[in-house]
Structures are given as C-alpha cells and as structure tokens.
Amino acid sequence: MKIVGLSGSKVGSKTRTAMDYTMKTIAEHYPEVEITLLDLADYDIPFSDGRNYLEYDGDAGYVTKTLMEADAIIIGTPIFQASIPATLKNIFDLLPQNAFLDKVVSVVVTAGSAKHYLIVEQQLKPILAYMKAQIVQTYVFIEEKDFYRKEITDDDVLFRIERLVEDTIVLTETFSEIREKKEAKYDF
Amino acid sequence: MNELKKYGIDPSRGLEFGIYTLGDHLPNPITGERVSAEERVHEIIEYAKLADQAGLDFFSVGESHQEYFVTQAHSVVLSAIAQATKNIKIASSSTIISTSDPVRVYEDFATIDLISKGRAEIIAGRASRVGLFDLLGYDLRNYEELFEEKFELLMKINEEEVVNWSGEFRAPLRNAQVLPRPKNSFIPIWRAVGGTPASAIRAGIAGAPMFMAHLGGPASVFKRTVDAYREAARNSGFNPAELPVATAGFFYAAESSQQALKDMYPHINEGMKKTNGAGFPKQHFAQGVDPHNIMNIGSPQQIIEKILYQHEMFGHQRYIAQIDFGGMPFEKVMKNVEIIGTEILPAIRKYTKKSEA
Fold first, then answer.
1. Does the ipTM exceed 0.90?
2. How far is A184 from chain B (nearest CA, A)?
C-alpha cells in the first residue's frame, strides 16, 4: 500500500508539523506501508495550463505522478481567507478529472480559528468527491492553540491523528478488497 | 440528387465503414513486449492494405507527438499507404492543424491525393494531448485561436486556387498558388470533434463535416452532440443535409461479447494509463457491450445491431473503428478486419443503403 501525504501550503509550519506527526504515526504503526510526504513548500510548481499531467516535467511532473500512483492520500491543509490555499487547489487543477478514482483520501486541517471548522466540509470535500475520491468522512481539525512551537501539545489531537491514520488504512484495504471482488465478477 | 457528393459520399451505397489508428506504439500488456518502430509502421501499412482488400471504405492515421506513438510524420505514412492500396479512402485522424502550416499540410495531402488517384481526405484537429505545443514552438495560450485561424486558411486554400489571406500566426499570402492541386481540385476536409457539444457547435459554425470521436457511454448522449452540430450549421446558413458526419471509437468483434471484453480490456486500460495517465475503469468497460452503449464491442451480430441502432439515431454517413490500440497483437487486428469484411460490412450496407428515389 502506498500512502502519500500532501502538505498543501507554502506558508508557515503548522500544517507541515501536523503532517510530520501523521506520517510518523503511519511509520510506527504500519511499517509495511510505503509512505511519501510531499510538502508543497519544497516544490516550484506552475499554475495548471490545461495539459495532461504526464506532460509536465520537473516538480509538477513529480508531484502529480506521485499522487496518481498512491493508493491513499492524506491531505494536510491550512485555512486561508476562509478557504483552502491556492497552492493546494492548483494541485487539483493539474490532475485529471477522475484522478482520485479508486483512491482513499483523508484530511488533516489546521486553522487559526474554530470558525473555520466547516471549510473542509463545504469546500474541500466537494472537490474530492467530484474527483471520485473515497473520502474518510471524519477529518482532524487542529487549532493554533493546540501547537507550541513545532509540536502538538494536545493529546486529543494526537489520538485523533492516530484514528485518522487507522481509518485511512482500513478503508483503503476494504475498498481494494471490494474492488477486487467486483472486478473478478466481470470475468474479463 | 446526392447532396453529399462534394465530400465523395454516396448514401445509395449505405453507411461507410472505416478504420482509424492513432499510430500508437505501445507494449502488449499481456507479454510486456513491444514491436520495433519499424515493425509497427509496417503493421499500419499492412493494416490499410487488408482493410482495402476487405472492401472497407476508409482508413486513417493520427498524429501524436509524444512517447508511445510512431506516426508523428503521419502524412509520410499515408503516402506509403496511398501507394500500397487501390480503392480505400485515406486520411489523417487527425492532423493537428494548430501546430502546422496549412500551406504545407495542403501540399502534402494534395500530393497524397495524386499518388492515391483522388482518395485523400484531411481531418483537422486541435490535439487532445498538448505536449506538441512545446515541441513545435507554439504557445498553448493560443490553443483556440491557432486552430480556428489555421483551419480557416486550410479551407480557403481548398476552395480557392489563388489565395489572398492574412492572419496572426502566419505570414500573409498574396496571390499565392498552393500547388499541386488535388485530383478533383478539392479534398474533403473534416473537423475533429472530441464528443462535447461545445466543439461540435464550432464545427457547425465553420460549415465543415464533423468527425466525432467518442470513448464510451450511451449513444443518446452523443446524439445531443450531433444535433448541436447540425443546429449550429443551420443557424450559420449551411444546409446540414450537405454536411456529412462520421463517428469514431473502440471496436472489437469476437465470438461472444464476453470474449471481446476479455481480449480488448487489458489493451485499452494499460494503453490509456500510459498515454493519458489514467486507466479505463472496468465497470465502465463492462457497460460497453450494452446495445445502447456507443462502444462497438461484442459478437459480429451484436455489433451489427449496435451500428444500425447508432445509424438510426445519428443519421451519420461514416463509422470508423479503432481496433489496434494498446499493443493489440496484429493477428487479432487482422482477424477483426476479416470479420468486418465478411460479416459486418455486408449487413451494414444492406440495411443502410438509400435508394435514389
């Protein structure tokens, strides 16, 4: 199983910190899972100009191909101006329409205020559903007050990350079993 | 009176049946092996010869400038096909006019027309994969404008012996003669349309015949595209009855629909992964054998019924089958041409020919 973590912003460190915890949780509890973390702060990616993702070289080609090869994707996103950052939306724009077909996608979100709790529900999930993701319905919402420097200080957040990782892996296994069973029935 | 004579189509002979290849050069997913580029080019020429011998009406070769394709110089391949065949119409599917010089394209195809003694056609498209814009030095931001301007010039060269023209993307032409002229001083030039009404509407506005490619889905969805095309043509002052429509998509015949799915699926799925970056979901492919699905996959009898159903719905003049995609073994391609020639084509012609009443 390949899980790719996607840290969706170039600004700040909280989302990256949360993603580091998430990836560490996978590595500790599920050593058999192959993990890759893509932090968009590390890459120079142009805005989508409409070409197929296979036709991009460099960082854009690497990031999109890595995502397309994943079985599950854990998206980490901050909330900017009551929405997801443009850097993350651009990744969706670079990918094909049905990019998340047969993939499980889950979300870790960091926000400066509890007022942003429903942004994932109302803005991110519709995009993921449109792109055919199997969405892990419960996401981890982390507020500024849960961090101290580059650490998460609230145990509850750590427990929620653990549960998110477990749910992501269990659903990925389950959907792949269901798919195999269904495809075997077609007999071609 | 035959309103479609200008485009070399005679409805009294029934629905035309053709074959197209994208000119892909992909490994066979079952063996993992890929024939050499030399072998693949010769396969394509041989494929055209067999289609000609089997009595098919049309054969076309595509232009894709990317990995896993071999007919980038599709007009050169077509000239070899012109020499190797006798009766079959030959064309591009499609020529990416946006990134070519219409003068050179016309010179090439007029020459192919002379070599083939009047059998050449051009299908001009905008490219569904756009890597060639970088390769050939064009700006993708001019995607629409490049296509519209160059398509217009190509049509003008076809209609006028002496051309006066100026545009944004090419040096102007002053009293220019584009030579040689084709055998009948006119080549049918079609617009390639990807199946969405938006692009069909633009073909209608241009008053050009429409070559509509489709993957899968219910035929009724594509009926809306055909209707939109004819409506747009009518609104722009053209008579839709004078504009032929061709449909083009996946085709595979075997003794049963289950066998056809089995034979074809791995090639489509793996081929699309390599060329488009996403496979073809099995669930969608399984629906391909439904009598109302536009994919012509099944037993010969099922396919005959499907094509007749589509013909009744679209009232199109030509159906074009894509069989050889994704490293399909050539013996299977040959077998399909044989089935078309002996079983499918005679039935289609019998039921679709129109009396000259």
1. no
2. 10
